[in-house]
Predict the structure.
Amino acid sequence: MNIFDIIGPVMIGPSSSHTAGAARAGKVARQLLESSPQKAEITLYNSFADTGAGHGTDRAIVGGLLGFEPDDHRLTNSFQYAAGQGLTYIFSKKTCADIHPNAVQIRLFGMGREKVTVLIASVGGGNIRVKKIDGIPVHFSAEFDTTVVFNRDKPGVVAELSSILAENKINIARMQLFRNQILQNAIMVIETDQAVPDTVGYRFKKAAYVTRVLQIKAMVERKSKVGESC
């Protein structure tokens, strides 16, 4: 644990969960769309729905969708910036006991046919967890450089992509596999110790059974040592 785990992130206030986490949720959703969003349908859940307006959650999410960081002073006026950039959005509110108290579902549409729906929880201290992508349950933090691979659930996909990373000397920090049904749609989440270059992403896209590849840049600086004893 470092000092920022205790005092929280550098951010525009007032709340690390309702403001900083919300901004990060918006930015991750933007990266998962892989283009500039033109339309957003945003559903606030539970505490986000109840108290988000007072904490600027709505403005923080829209700012994140524009690519703003949690400490960007433009978050305060993100609605005006969104209008200037042609981003339209609608908010709705829901209560659901099965969803994290601070959660948001963001459905984004790009200029072309790009679209994505993500469910993200803000878990405190400005940290987030991506919980669903296009209806498939996932679980990752976006703290590492993360490659999200949409693929058919077929033998050999993991081995092929792992080999490509090894050839390029990219170290895997964590790899997780998710699917909706056996041998149907699947998502592979690969967190790495360094960014995956475009050339590798291109090879991923050409791999058998891979349908889409999205990349998220690391959202926090990682320590060089892990697993240190106290």
Remarks:
- The chain has two domains: 13-140, 145-216.
- Confidence is low (pLDDT under 50) at residues 1-14, 222-230.
- The domain at 145-216 is CATH 3.30.70.260 (Alpha-Beta Plaits).
- Strands lie at 39-45, 88-94, 102-109, 115-124, 127-133, 136-140, 145-152, 172-179, 185-192, 210-216.
